[in-house]
Amino acid sequence: MLNFEFLLDLPTLREKKLHICTLVPEGECSWERGISYLFDDLRRLPYREEWFDWVACLSTIEHVGMDNALIYTHDAADQQAQPRDYLSAVEELHRVLKPGGTLFLTFPYGRAMNHGWLQIFDASMVEKVVSTFRPARRTAYYFLYEAEGWRSSSAEGAAHATFFDIHHAPGFDPDYASSARAVCCLELIK
């Protein structure tokens, strides 16, 4: 999610040494900026322990262990149905962070649902993420989508949110949601 020119041009990112790890190559690549690109699985990160000060895992963890061949890779090896594997990814993210390091983690939130290619997290799954990571400190933000747009919410206020699966639904719903109707953003300090 950070691999866009307008984001990479921000002074706060331009001054950082960036490593981008994705399952498969993306269409955009800025290696000339000194950005390191690796293509691997979040469940087995190719980094040594306590390497990073910050890790941003945005709109990704919900795909771990799911059918990534459906939309992303078209490789039968990535056609998986292991929805609990997101916890292995959380363990890896913890492993590669330095003590005091920060993990920024976002994912769709609301009624738990397995869509095959991704899953929606509910409150109990959020607690599993937190207990697996074992943060020294945590902050959670919730956002809810309604016909008028996005607004801040609470976990309880977003708990019944649903997901519009554009890959499997004809047309759009009346609120024109393009995917998640709620997201959870976690800031976890190791």
Summarize, please:
This protein is of the alpha/beta class.
Distance between the termini: 22 Å
Largest sheet: 5 strands, mixed
Strands ordered across the widest β-sheet: 3-4-9-7-8
Query: What is the typical, i.e. mean, pLDDT?
Result: 88
Question: How much helicity do the residues have?
Answer: 10-25%
Q: Over all CA atoms, what is the radius of gyration?
A: 17 Å
Shape type = globular
Q: Write the H/E string, N to C.
A: HHEEEHEEEHEEHE
What does this structure look like?
The protein is an alpha/beta fold and 190 residues long. Helix 3 (86-96) runs parallel beside helix 4 (123-133). The radius of gyration is 17 Å and the shape is globular. It has helices at residues 5-8, 11-14, 86-96, 123-133, 155-158, and strands at 19-22, 36-39, 52-58, 97-108, 113-114, 119-120, 137-146, 149-153, 182-189.
Question: Topology, pairings included?
Answer:
Layout: H1 5-8, H2 11-14, E1 19-22, E2 36-39, E3 52-58, H3 86-96, E4 97-108, E5 113-114, E6 119-120, H4 123-133, E7 137-146, E8 149-153, H5 155-158, E9 182-189
Parallel strand pairs: 1-2, 3-4
Antiparallel strand pairs: 4-9, 5-6, 7-8, 7-9
Helix pairs in contact: 3-4
Please supply descriptive tags for the structure shown above.
alpha/beta
